[in-house]
């Protein structure tokens, strides 16, 4: 709108309406030709990658032969160009189709095209571009690849033939040694070439153990004659599974021409069982998934909700808490993560976290996480699915359902649309039951018009109820500083200590456990949260159970709500309390969607049912229970059915380190009052909550309430021990050699090994141990990480086979008997878990195989870890992408502390050693004698640089090697010029007019 027409303009030319729709001084970006509604949005735009790219003058481009122009941007921009009016009009005038393939960009009067980097660069920025690190790196690598290609060609009449790729070799044959012959011949009748030198590229410049390949001359002659070829013998001898590669370099000298030249051949071998490799190999090459074009939803026909959702009568309505549109648009934009992160901070988040901004901060973080969860669900959309009808239910097969990929619960919604439909209408099917590989849906009655045999597009919808409950909690005005932001002034002056008549005698000799129970019991109403910091195997849950029982026994009016982030952790609390409490004292609440088949028979008597579904009794009955146990999110049921605030004198949250802060506060903000005491137990050094959004992670959603409290000065172990925090220090799980490294790195060497000697020493002196008194093995495997079809998850066949070998040995060993239940296998990638299950199906089907997250809180006599990643591309090394989340310190801590007796790690040291934590651990194992497989390639006694940078060092070393090789290849050419200078000394000059 024209600002001249605005009725609100004042005499000085400004507008009196702050939200005027007329265009008064609207900010515009001259570089990008974008118009912005507000100054703040314009400032945000200035930080975006798109704007910076335009200003810098560099962007990727494709050339349109119709419009004779370079189109800046990716595939999306190119498609938009093809459908543009100007392009289509020009195509029509030329009589050609507008749907043309892009061509390589070309230089214009204002720009240059860099062939090496495949990008358009404005001319004024050309010099800075070619001097840039990326361009220089690509230039160096191109030079190296050209040198390699040149060296692999036969030349000067010399031909090098033989088998250089050993392909798949059975382990027994490789251990004994496999040989092949190399023949060097010449096509020149009177050749004067001599094999001057032959060597392996691995034989110089790096620390290596025994090389996999060796080369020897067959005979004594090195002169290559037409009727007398030179022969060499290549031997592959290696006792370990894995992949091996080297470069064999032949240096020849033409004695007549006095020229030197190089010919190279690449040696390769895979050591492993052929049948296993064939069974596990990728069935289709990996193709990165493109963002799916989800069909628009213009109308949704509601489905029929399952009866389970009607079993609880809530008196408090749940808010919708939909994602704000502006935030949703920002998160779904094309800007990079860093730009989105900065924009979220600037536009939505408060500058400081305090009692006033607390709810707003976490509501936005929840919305950011929700957006990512919804996006990730797209992966599971099913195209062309069939539905099978039985009575009122429609059955849908869901691939990956048994592994919770996707996770589907009773009450969830799944949308379906008949294939080919263009009206934007979708039918909502509510999940009424979940089986091993299929779900049962119930639709609106009009869905029956679709005949059998038709195909449908299936779209999974995020179950927003857990998120809505967290938003509901954030909306409550409980903002006690002693709970949210405790300071020293809130703390008791000295640790409390009371005489205890213990229910569990095992605590009697454990001072930290006794102090924790005493402090919890004697804390006056309205105290700050008490934290039981429980490192691995220190009896954290036992301590909490004892504390709950003591409170019930000593405080008659006490009413306790005990929560945990997961049903399994909540069940553990209920089972241990159930041995002492009756069903009239203890109530275990389950969400109505939970199946009774998932619940222990022991706990069923502590539940309440309505029409065969889990429910909650009347408030009057709920008030009489001494203890109510639920998950953190489900704890909202108590407030929802009308339980009064302040009814619970104590709220316990076990495994609090695994809950997000909004999860933990569902119970606190909705049910606590100024007198309620909160007790948290967990370990901030182990895994935190699972957060899908990297933006939400970076903004703090991954930090649990427990961890945030322990980072405050008021919770310093030095000054507040026994007052508001206790650290348990007796480890009852692991052998000292296993405990030693994480104890030093994560727990200040406070942990004391107290495990049963019969358990922790179980595998000492076994054949699995390179050092018979050291129960840790690192098995070095140089493998290959692979991906299957469209799945981005990695797997490593070589590591699968090595893990299988260990399991077979363990199962067949009569001296050290091991059952499936004794073994746990941890792999950080889902695809590796699937491959391991497939490989072990006939060997040890009951062995638990899973991610680190699935093993937190568990223990096994034997833990085998497969780290999976094994990359050889050192030139463009990216530590974050190469190691993935293998290098996460908490993931590392949980993985290595699950084992009681024997820890076996299978991995590629070349990759793991890039991370300082892993490098230190590998040094520890090597120096203790626990290393097996190909030898370490660095000095394990050299101090580890905790700042890292090992990826840069390897990349730099690789570049030096490549430059050195390229220079040697070029030197051969230069030598010809130098020889010509010497040869022409006695040659007469030719007269030229």
UniProtKB/TrEMBL annotation:
<dbReference type="Pfam" id="PF21634">
    <property type="entry name" value="MOV-10_beta-barrel"/>
</dbReference>
<dbReference type="GO" id="GO:0003723">
    <property type="term" value="F:RNA binding"/>
</dbReference>
<dbReference type="InterPro" id="IPR049080">
    <property type="entry name" value="MOV-10-like_beta-barrel"/>
</dbReference>
<dbReference type="InterPro" id="IPR003604">
    <property type="entry name" value="Matrin/U1-like-C_Znf_C2H2"/>
</dbReference>
<keyword id="KW-0347">Helicase</keyword>
<dbReference type="InterPro" id="IPR027417">
    <property type="entry name" value="P-loop_NTPase"/>
</dbReference>
<keyword id="KW-0943">RNA-mediated gene silencing</keyword>
<dbReference type="GO" id="GO:0005524">
    <property type="term" value="F:ATP binding"/>
</dbReference>
<dbReference type="GO" id="GO:0031047">
    <property type="term" value="P:regulatory ncRNA-mediated gene silencing"/>
</dbReference>
<feature type="domain" description="C2H2-type">
    <location>
        <begin position="29"/>
        <end position="51"/>
    </location>
</feature>
<dbReference type="GO" id="GO:0016787">
    <property type="term" value="F:hydrolase activity"/>
</dbReference>
<dbReference type="InterPro" id="IPR013087">
    <property type="entry name" value="Znf_C2H2_type"/>
</dbReference>
<comment type="similarity">
    <text>Belongs to the DNA2/NAM7 helicase family. SDE3 subfamily.</text>
</comment>
<keyword id="KW-0694">RNA-binding</keyword>
<dbReference type="InterPro" id="IPR026122">
    <property type="entry name" value="MOV-10/SDE3_DEXXQ/H-box"/>
</dbReference>
<dbReference type="GO" id="GO:0032574">
    <property type="term" value="F:5'-3' RNA helicase activity"/>
</dbReference>
<keyword id="KW-0547">Nucleotide-binding</keyword>
<dbReference type="Pfam" id="PF13086">
    <property type="entry name" value="AAA_11"/>
</dbReference>
<dbReference type="Pfam" id="PF13087">
    <property type="entry name" value="AAA_12"/>
</dbReference>
<protein>
    <recommendedName>
        <fullName>RNA helicase</fullName>
        <ecNumber>3.6.4.13</ecNumber>
    </recommendedName>
</protein>
<keyword id="KW-0067">ATP-binding</keyword>
<dbReference type="InterPro" id="IPR041679">
    <property type="entry name" value="DNA2/NAM7-like_C"/>
</dbReference>
<dbReference type="InterPro" id="IPR047187">
    <property type="entry name" value="SF1_C_Upf1"/>
</dbReference>
<keyword id="KW-0378">Hydrolase</keyword>
<dbReference type="GO" id="GO:0008270">
    <property type="term" value="F:zinc ion binding"/>
</dbReference>
<dbReference type="InterPro" id="IPR041677">
    <property type="entry name" value="DNA2/NAM7_AAA_11"/>
</dbReference>
<keyword id="KW-0963">Cytoplasm</keyword>
<dbReference type="GO" id="GO:0036464">
    <property type="term" value="C:cytoplasmic ribonucleoprotein granule"/>
</dbReference>
């Amino acid at each position: 709108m024209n600002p001249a027409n605005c009725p609100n303009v004042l005499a000085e030319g400004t507008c009196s309406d702050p939200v005027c729709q007329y265009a008064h001084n609207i900010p515009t970006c001259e570089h990008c030709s974008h118009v912005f509604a507000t100054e703040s949005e314009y400032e945000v735009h200035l930080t975006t990658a798109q704007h910076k790219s335009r200003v810098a003058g560099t962007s990727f481009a494709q050339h349109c032969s119709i419009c004779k122009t370079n189109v800046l941007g990716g595939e999306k921009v190119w498609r938009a160009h093809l459908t543009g009016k100007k392009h289509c009009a020009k195509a029509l005038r030329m009589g050609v189709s507008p749907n043309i393939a892009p061509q390589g960009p070309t230089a214009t009067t204002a720009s240059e095209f860099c062939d090496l980097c495949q990008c358009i660069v404005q001319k004024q920025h050309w010099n800075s571009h070619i001097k840039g690190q990326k361009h220089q790196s690509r230039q160096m690598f191109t030079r190296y690849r050209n040198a390699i290609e040149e060296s692999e060609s036969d030349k000067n009449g010399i031909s090098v033939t033989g088998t250089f790729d050993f392909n798949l070799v059975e382990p027994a044959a490789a251990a004994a040694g496999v040989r092949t012959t190399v023949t060097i011949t010449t096509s020149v009748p009177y050749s004067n070439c001599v094999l001057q030198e032959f060597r392996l590229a691995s034989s110089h410049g790096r620390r290596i153990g025994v090389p996999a390949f060796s080369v020897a001359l067959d005979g004594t002659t090195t002169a290559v004659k037409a009727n007398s070829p030179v022969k060499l013998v290549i031997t592959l001898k290696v006792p370990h599974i894995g992949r091996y590669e080297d470069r064999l370099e032949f240096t020849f000298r033409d004695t007549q021409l006095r020229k030197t030249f190089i010919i190279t051949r690449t040696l390769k071998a895979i050591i492993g069982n052929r049948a296993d490799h064939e069974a596990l190999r990728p069935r289709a090459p990996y193709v990165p998934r493109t963002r799916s074009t989800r069909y628009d939803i213009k109308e949704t026909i509601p489905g029929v909700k399952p009866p389970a959702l009607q079993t609880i009568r809530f008196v408090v309505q749940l808010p919708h808490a939909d994602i704000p549109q502006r935030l949703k648009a920002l998160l779904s934009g094309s800007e990079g993560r860093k730009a989105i992160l900065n924009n979220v901070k600037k536009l939505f988040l408060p500058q400081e976290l305090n009692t006033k901004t607390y709810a707003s901060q976490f509501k936005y973080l929840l919305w950011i996480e929700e957006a990512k969860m919804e996006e990730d669900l797209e992966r599971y959309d099913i195209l062309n699915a069939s539905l099978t009808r039985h009575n009122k239910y429609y059955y849908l097969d869901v691939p990956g359902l048994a592994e919770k990929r996707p996770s589907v619960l009773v009450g969830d919604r799944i949308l379906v649309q008949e294939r080919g439909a263009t009206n934007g209408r979708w039918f909502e099917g509510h999940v009424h039951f979940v089986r091993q590989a299929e779900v049962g849906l119930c639709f609106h009655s009009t869905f029956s018009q679709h005949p059998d045999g038709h195909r449908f597009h299936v779209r999974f919808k995020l179950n927003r109820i857990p998120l809505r409950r967290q938003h509901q909690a954030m909306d409550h005005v409980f903002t006690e500083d002693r709970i949210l932001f405790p300071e020293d002034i809130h703390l008791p002056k000295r640790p409390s200590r009371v005489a205890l008549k213990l229910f569990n005698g095992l605590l009697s000799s454990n001072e930290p456990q006794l102090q924790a129970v005493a402090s919890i019991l004697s804390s006056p109403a309205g105290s700050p949260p008490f934290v039981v910091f429980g490192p691995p195997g220190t009896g954290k849950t036992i301590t909490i159970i004892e504390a709950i029982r003591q409170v019930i026994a000593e405080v008659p009016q006490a009413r306790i709500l005990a929560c945990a982030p997961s049903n399994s952790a909540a069940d553990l609390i209920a089972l241990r309390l159930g041995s002492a409490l009756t069903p009239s004292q203890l109530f275990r609440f389950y969400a109505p969607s939970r199946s009774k088949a998932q619940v222990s028979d022991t706990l069923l008597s502590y539940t309440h049912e309505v029409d065969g579904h889990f429910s909650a009794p009347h408030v009057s009955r709920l008030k009489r229970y001494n203890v109510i146990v639920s998950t953190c999110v489900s704890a909202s049921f108590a407030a929802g059915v009308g339980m009064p605030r302040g009814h619970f004198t104590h709220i316990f949250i076990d495994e609090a380190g695994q809950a997000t802060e909004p999860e933990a506060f569902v119970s606190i903000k909705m049910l606590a009052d100024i007198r309620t005491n909160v007790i948290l137990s967990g370990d901030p050094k182990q895994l935190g909550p699972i957060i899908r959004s990297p933006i939400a992670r970076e903004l703090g959603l991954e930090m649990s309430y427990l961890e945030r409290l322990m980072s405050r000065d008021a919770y310093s172990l030095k000054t507040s021990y026994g007052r508001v925090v206790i650290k348990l220090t007796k480890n009852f799980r692991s052998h000292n050699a296993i405990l030693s490294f994480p104890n030093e790195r994560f727990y200040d060497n406070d942990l004391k090994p107290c495990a049963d000697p019969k358990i922790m020493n179980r595998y000492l002196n076994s054949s699995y141990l390179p050092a018979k008194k050291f129960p840790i093995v690192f098995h070095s495997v140089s493998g290959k990480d692979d991906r299957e079809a469209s799945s981005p998850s990695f797997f490593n066949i070589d590591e699968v086979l090595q893990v299988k070998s260990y399991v077979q040995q363990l199962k067949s060993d009569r001296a050290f008997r091991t059952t499936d239940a004794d073994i746990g296998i941890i792999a950080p990638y889902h695809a590796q878990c699937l491959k391991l299950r497939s490989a072990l199906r006939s060997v040890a089907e009951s062995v638990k195989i899973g991610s680190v997250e699935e093993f937190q809180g568990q223990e096994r006599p034997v833990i085998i870890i497969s780290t999976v990643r094994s990359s050889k591309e050192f030139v463009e090394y990216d530590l974050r992408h190469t190691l993935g989340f293998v290098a996460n310190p908490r993931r590392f801590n949980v993985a290595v502390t699950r084992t009681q007796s024997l820890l076996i790690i299978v991995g590629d040291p070349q990759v793991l050693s890039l991370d300082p934590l892993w490098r230190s651990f590998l040094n520890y194992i090597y120096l203790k004698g626990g290393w097996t497989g190909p030898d370490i390639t660095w000095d394990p006694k050299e101090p580890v640089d905790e700042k890292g940078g090992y990826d840069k060092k390897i990349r730099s070393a690789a570049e030096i090697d490549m430059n050195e090789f390229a220079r040697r290849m070029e030197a051969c050419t230069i030598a010809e010029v130098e020889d010509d200078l010497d040869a022409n000394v006695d040659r007469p000059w030719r007269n030229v007019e």
